[in-house]
Amino acid sequence: MATSASQPMMGEGPSTEVTPDVQVRMEPTLSFYKRGNRQILLLMVVALPIALAVWLGMFFLLPEIHNMDTPADRHEFTFRCLAVATLMTLALNIECVAHGRIFTAFAVDPIAQQGNEPYSMKVNMRVLSQTVEQLILFGVALLGLASYSADGKQMRAVVATTVVFVISRWVYWGGYHYAPRLRTPGNISLVQSLIVLIYVAGRFGNEMAGVPGVMLCLLPFVGAEVLLVLERGMVN
Question: Are 122 and 100 spatial neighbours (Cβ–Cβ below 8 Å)?
Fold first, then answer.
């Protein structure tokens, strides 16, 4: 008797063939991604006012910072804020990856074990990589913000920006471990750095050439962002 193609022959064990209907169920659908994108957008909408409230609370409730009379004093203070932010984010991320490798095969030869990392280590490594990128933007933005802070009262903006950055990176890290979509509010750190950079670039352009200077400093970035959004929309 001929054996059906859909039935295993004796001694071969159960069939591993994936039928078309099963394959369709296994593949993420477009509606799945759209639902995920809506959830991500909702998380950002909720996170933005919370981050703004934290920033404003720090700015208005902190006492005036003393000994901020010269630009050198203000930039020295800013570097200290950067040091604290680096310790609380990048250094902590590095320690997590390092401790995850201690007493394992990854400590002996990480390259040979590449691809075999547990999920938690992959998350920590991804968070570490993103924190390096974001810390560069944050550092430049914070120094620029300090250069336009004239006294101890205005320098409270540097402290508030640092606090929001650190909290955002912690939210990104913890949310990624709990559920990937919950890392979304942690991207407030990127949004904040971009806002500060736009503010600094705009003020610098205005000092140099008024409104044309502002347009020269900001329009290329804004134009590139619009093109990226339009390109993404056409892809989807």
Answer: no
